[in-house]
Amino acid sequence: xxxxGIDPAFAGAKVSKLQFAPxxxxxxxxxxxKDFNASDVRAWLAGLDCPTIGAEAFFETDGVxxxxxxxxxxxxxxxNGFAASADGFLLSRAFFVGDFIRSAEKVSESSLFCGEPDHxxxxxxxxxxxxxxxxxxxxxxxxxxxxxxxALREDPRYLSLLPAPPAYETAWNCPLPHWxxxxxxxxxxxGYMLDIKAAEKYLK
Length: 204
Hints:
The protein is built from seven helices and ten strands. It has helices at residues 8-11, 38-46, 76-91, 97-108, 128-132, 144-154, 196-203; strands at residues 15-22, 30-32, 52-61, 64-73, 119-124, 134-138, 166-172, 178-183, 185-188, 191-194. It has an eight-stranded antiparallel β-sheet with strand order 2-1-3-4-8-7-5-6. Strands 9-10 form a two-stranded antiparallel ribbon. Helix 2 (38-46) packs antiparallel against helix 3 (76-91) and helix 3 runs antiparallel to helix 4 (97-108).
């Protein structure tokens, strides 16, 4: 089945890091980079006691920072699957976004990124819940860029200096919560700013 909602370039991009978080608490995420020890990842996953677990793979394509992610019930099979993904990332020369997605599909026994997305949100990377995400588009709404502009007029928090990079997520609710994210930020002294030009480029 075609992945209608995901950029084809994403699947072939090399993963730069993985992260795992209990429930949706990305502020507490274990960030797994290439110098990490695989046994430490397995030990961290084994110590979790939470109803759901989130996983994200970060990458760069055409100079754009992006990520894909999902959230699943926290079972032993899921933890084993995420540990296997971490092993693949840490122990192979090249681990691709497509590898991460296929691993998630195998564990969940579901096809991901199929059909139209359910909604889009603006948020801060690893502060999505604590800062408060801004839902600006839902399935059936009009043009996404126009809806983002309208949402920012109603809630201008994202137009000020920000403590983490802003990104937008395109999200699917079924068969489980999963999403793609694209950074639309520029770094400034003391923090980050929303890059409106980048938002205009990608949401057109």
